[in-house]
Specification:
21 helices, about 750 residues
């Protein structure tokens, strides 16, 4: 069985680039370990908890994290007062609660709105309501919203040494201050902003690790540090590395033939089968009863001489489970997580098996409306009709939406074709830079633009133009030498004859054949010796190859141009939005029209997206398709929600400016990720690589073995690289394996 502290590190540099970039051999080792973790844990395992197991070294022999050299003093200390900090799933904390400190790993989180009844009935406005909502159609005005939440801590995660005794736990449950009788934390969470409250669980956990739990994340006592995996401690690199590892772990869980997932939670198929066979409380009979109750919840009771109107009914899974006889004892501790996930999975299976996009033969429409509140809120409507989204398991928040004031009816419109809007910042985008002009040579640098690729030209600076005007005719021809280090360039591209246009408005080289792997934003350095008939162009190598979105490169680039012009629908053959699907159209519009930062981050007014994409307000179905695509891209973390403001002229700004109305933004962040070449990959020249980089990592020693002085010194150096100025000593029973390459 793979071991995080074993001979080979479980997490590898390739995993920081996402699941698709990981060699199958490494995937299988990780998948095998995670399957064992899911089978060993009492609660379904969230992706964040699965990350903890692999990163912090969860022991499968019953000791949990207690068998690792982790230092409890590195855990964030949380004091639960009137308003609690954000504690996402995965957070490892020491909760101070009087004389009994509570060491726990948060393994589950849900909304605990007081309006949810003990029988599971939920007012419509609660389902899908934003944090801080005060009532139907009242989202609240606070910039720092509060929300009541239920957190499930795993008190056994750190083994017997840090586990509370039965007497201590009973005392805490009896007091019911921050931990209730079921062993769950019920707290009012204070979010720093509306944007923070809307973040998905993995983004929230990444924020937690990079801020509150940073010392824990960069501890030298983990099996292999994230800093070693990404090659540094910059926040941007660490965040990108976390996103890649989360994607790798989620892919490993999803691809397992032994597991099933509900949202981010993984369970063994064996445990699910046992649950369906169980005839006791919350077994198969109760799950079938729950599914039938949800299906018929909105069917009106027929009464003689009375007209019955149909209203949707919203049912919360968590409270509804408590209504089953004998269920109370099974819903304490982490048992609640297992029961809720199994119930939701059972409802999802029934909807997928017995309905047409949620519409049953009985006429009832069943959809998941809110995946977070009270264990999940399902919407039952009778008689129903298929919903526009088409997928009944994508939470739509129709309960909350139904309480909002209706929008003004738009003017009748027909389906529109997407438009190709000009770049608002085209003239200032990607301007060149003169590097040297000393009377002998002129050297300048500029990013390649999309129009350069399409039409085969490149601009000239005035310094070069003056020399060419003196020494050549109006349309001279020059010899172009093009170099692309690390890549093979075709002979016809390496040496070309190009034309110089020296008109009043056209100061450029024309007739250029650009290599196929050149892209918008690629930095070109140009060298011209005054009076000479040759111009040399070259690209500049990066220290290592990177992946930015879908673009992989090993050369310097301008992130602003890359964001604006390397978009769906644009290549060296043309630039058009025609024929793009909703997802591609959303990506193109946000990147083309959003506010652009120096690092290539684009932020767009969410309300303006349909009009920007189509030039006019599109048909309702087209707008709905764009919104559905936005939600999918949010869920996949390709795009991210943000907040901005709008000034008196209608222009959006980010961050929010005081005194301006707050608006929702769609953000595109071009994160750089290192490209790790797998076994058998090739270098830039096509040579086979038989080596694999292995980062420095801790390894558990066999009994009776001890590390050498060389390894002790290497570990102290490793600690200093992680920011531990004095270095630390190796924990007992472990050695340090220095970074090296494996293979030939």
């Amino acid at each position: 069985m793979p071991d995080p502290y074993g001979e080979r590190a479980l997490l590898t540099p390739a995993m920081t680039a996402g699941h698709d970039a990981v060699p199958e051999q490494e995937r299988e080792r990780l998948r095998s370990y995670l399957q064992a973790v899911v089978a060993a844990r009492r609660a379904p395992v969230h992706t964040a908890v699965a990350f903890n197991a692999a990163y912090f070294g969860y022991d499968l022999g019953g000791e949990g994290y207690g068998a690792s050299p982790l230092r409890p003093e590195d855990f964030p200390v949380i004091t639960l007062g009137e308003c609690a900090p954000v504690l996402p799933v995965g957070a490892m904390v020491c909760v101070t609660s009087g004389s009994d400190p509570l060491f726990a790993e948060i393994v589950y989180r849900e909304g605990a709105h007081p309006e949810a009844s003990v029988h599971g009935d939920v007012p419509a406005w609660v389902s899908g309501a934003p944090a801080g909502a005060e009532g139907p159609g009242e989202p609240g005005e606070g910039a720092a919203p509060r929300r009541r939440e239920l957190l499930v801590p795993d008190l056994d995660a750190f083994g017997p040494a840090l586990r509370l005794s039965p007497t201590q736990l009973h005392r805490l449950r009896t007091r019911q201050r921050w931990i209730n009788a079921d062993g769950h934390l019920v707290v009012d969470v204070c979010y720093p902003s509306q944007e923070a409250a809307r973040r998905d669980e993995l983004s929230a956990y990444a924020d937690h690790l990079l801020s509150t739990a940073r010392d824990q994340l960069l501890s030298p006592f983990v099996p292999v540090s994230l800093a070693e995996l990404v090659g540094g401690t910059r926040d941007e690199d660490l965040r990108a590395g976390l996103a890649g590892i989360f994607d790798t772990i989620r892919g490993a869980l999803d691809s397992s033939e032994l597991l099933r997932t509900w949202g981010q939670y993984a369970m063994t198929k064996t445990s699910l089968a046992e649950c369906w066979r169980d005839t006791g409380p919350l077994g198969g009979d109760d799950l079938r009863s729950l599914a039938a109750a949800v299906e018929h919840a909105a069917v009106p009771v027929k009464r003689r001489y009375m007209h019955t109107s149909a209203h949707p009914v919203y049912i919360a899974v968590g409270p509804r489970l408590r209504a089953f006889p004998g269920a109370a004892d099974l819903l304490t501790g982490t048992g609640y997580v297992a029961a809720v996930c199994r119930a939701n999975m059972a409802l999802a299976d029934v909807v997928q098996r017995d309905s047409e996009q949620g519409l049953f033969v009985s006429g009832s429409l069943i959809t998941l409306d809110d995946a977070f509140e009270s264990g999940g809120v399902w919407r039952s409507h009778h008689p129903g009709a298929p919903e526009p989204s088409g997928d009944p398991l994508i939470p739509a928040g129709r309960g909350w939406a139904s309480t909002l004031p209706p929008e003004a009816e738009p003017e009748p419109c027909v389906d529109l074709e997407p438009v190709d809007l000009p770049l608002a910042d085209d003239t200032s985008l990607g301007s060149g830079e003169l590097l040297r002009s000393d009377g002998t040579d002129v050297v300048w640098r500029a990013p390649l633009r999309l129009t350069h690729l399409i039409d085969g030209w490149f601009p000239l600076p005035p310094e070069a133009v003056r020399d060419l005007c003196r020494s050549h005719d109006r349309y001279p021809t020059l010899r172009l030498e093009l170099r692309h280090p690390g890549q093979t360039v075709d002979e016809k591209e390496a040496e070309q004859v190009v034309t110089v246009e020296l008109g009043h408005e056209a100061l450029r080289l024309t007739g250029i054949l650009w290599p196929l792997d050149f892209f918008p934003g690629l930095m070109i350095e140009v060298h011209h010796s005054l009076g000479g008939a040759t111009i040399r162009m070259t690209t500049t190598l990066l220290r290592e190859r990177v992946l930015i979105g879908d673009r992989e490169t090993g050369h310097c680039y301008d992130p602003r141009v890359l964001t604006r012009e390397d978009v769906p629908g644009s290549d060296r053959h043309g630039d058009s939005a025609a024929g793009l699907g909703p997802r591609q159209l959303v990506m193109r519009t946000v990147r083309r029209c959003g506010l652009l930062t120096l690092d290539g981050h684009a932020l767009m007014d969410r309300a303006a997206l349909p009009t920007a994409a189509y030039g006019h307000r599109p048909a309702r179905a087209q707008a709905a398709s764009l919104e559905s695509a936005v939600m999918e891209l949010f869920a996949e973390r390709v795009l991210e929600p943000a907040l901005g403001s709008r000034d008196a002229m209608g222009r959006p700004h980010h961050p929010v400016r005081d005194g301006q109305p707050v608006i929702a933004l769609i953000g595109y962040r071009p994160l750089e990720r290192r490209v790790i070449r797998p076994w058998g990959g090739t270098d830039e020249g096509g040579a086979l690589l038989g080596v694999q980089f292995v980062p420095g990592h801790l390894r558990r020693l066999r009994p009776g073995c001890f590390p050498s002085e060389v390894q002790r010194a290497a570990f102290r150096d490793y600690c200093r690289r992680l920011g531990k100025a004095d270095g630390w000593e190796l924990p007992y029973g472990y050695t340090f394996v220095t970074e090296h390459t494996r293979g030939h």
